[in-house]
Design a protein that fits this description.
Blueprint (H helix, E strand, L loop, with lengths): L4 H11 L17 H4 L10 E9 L9 E11 L4 E12 L2 E15 L5 E15 L18 E16 L3 E7 L5 E5 L2 E8 L2 E8 L1 E4 L2 E12 L5 E10 L3 E8 L3 E9 L4 E10 L10 E10 L13
Antiparallel strand pairs: 1-2, 1-17, 2-3, 3-4, 4-5, 5-6, 6-7, 7-10, 8-9, 10-12, 11-12, 12-13, 13-14, 14-15, 15-16, 16-17
């Protein structure tokens, strides 16, 4: 059955010896910076709760599904920020849940520019259940051994340089490499490797009611091609965001956001796959929700853009 193709593709990506497990990807990454860069914690100057749900390659059984929830806030008046993030990722027969706490410290590098340093600490629980899938496999192959709630630590670092109208960040959400064991067998097919992120954006004020922000996210990991996302978003009347995105050699995207109130923003993104796989699915969908309280800073450029 063709519905099993996605499981096979997922297993190749996730559990083949020559590849490392990949971190989740997001089209609305500009609203999800805390997950990849702990230095972002508290930078918006308010208590911010964020959630993204992504379902990829709709129409394939076992296609990737990701739920992310996080919050972050400044603490006191000494440049300290704290955050918390939860990620649940399901791809084919594999499931992974991450819990992490973020800490940041910010210094002023000039009158308008700030530099934040960040640390991330937490843990991951990883499971693979081949017996629950319809994929045919060799039970004697050590690469298809089931894994149940294998624990691995998370330790990440980040830098985040920002002003009122631009930002650039460099980070790794987890510097540690983990290999899972079953008895005396190293399950090299379930290897976690460090991912490195570069994120940047600039806000141009085109008029009194129109702002434009190009942004980029690049992700590098050993054993996999460089992943690059670029996007262009317009903000109209501080309420409506419209944008487009492109994931290098992978997908094109459309983005929509609406600022319901000063506290609530909702967003939606649709990806159309430009690879051969795109012929066999109806695209990917992503829903974003943000809720914010206790604004402690004011910016000349609307901080809702980053």
């Amino acid at each position: 059955k063709f519905s099993n193709v996605i499981i096979l593709l997922s297993c190749i990506v996730i559990v083949h010896n020559t590849y490392s497990q990949q971190d989740s990807q997001y089209t609305q990454y500009m609203y999800n910076t805390i997950v990849v860069n702990p230095a972002y914690a508290g930078s918006r100057g308010l208590f911010s709760i964020n959630s993204i749900y992504r379902t990829q390659w709709v129409g394939f059984n076992g296609a990737p599904k990701t739920l992310t929830a996080s919050f972050n806030s400044p603490v006191g008046q000494r440049g300290v920020g704290l955050g918390f993030s939860f990620i649940n990722d399901e791809i084919g027969p594999s499931k992974e849940s991450n819990l992490a706490i973020d800490f940041s410290y910010t210094i002023n590098t000039s009158e308008k520019t700030k530099l934040s340093f960040g640390l991330k600490g937490g843990f991951s629980l990883y499971s693979v259940n081949f017996s629950s899938s319809s994929l045919n496999y060799d039970r004697s192959d050590p690469n298809t051994i089931d894994i149940k709630n294998e624990f691995s630590p998370i330790f990440g670092v980040g830098l985040y340089l920002h002003s009122e109208d631009w930002y650039v960040g460099l980070s790794s959400a987890n510097l540690l490499e983990t290999k899972y064991y079953k008895g005396n067998v190293i399950v090299t097919t379930a290897t976690e490797k460090a991912h490195f992120y570069l994120i940047a954006g600039y806000v141009f004020e085109l008029s009194s009611n129109t702002k434009f922000k190009p942004a980029i996210l690049a992700k590098a990991v050993s054993g996999a091609p460089l992943a690059v996302d670029v996007s262009a978003n317009f903000l109209f009347n501080e309420k409506i965001t419209l944008g487009v995105g492109y994931r290098w050699n992978a997908a094109v995207s459309a983005l929509l956001g609406f600022q319901v109130s000063d506290q609530i923003m909702i967003g939606y993104a649709y990806d159309y796959d430009t690879t051969d796989v795109g012929s066999y699915n109806s695209g990917s969908h992503e829903i974003f929700l943000r809720f914010e309280l206790f604004n402690t800073i004011k910016r000349a450029t609307n901080p809702r853009f980053f």
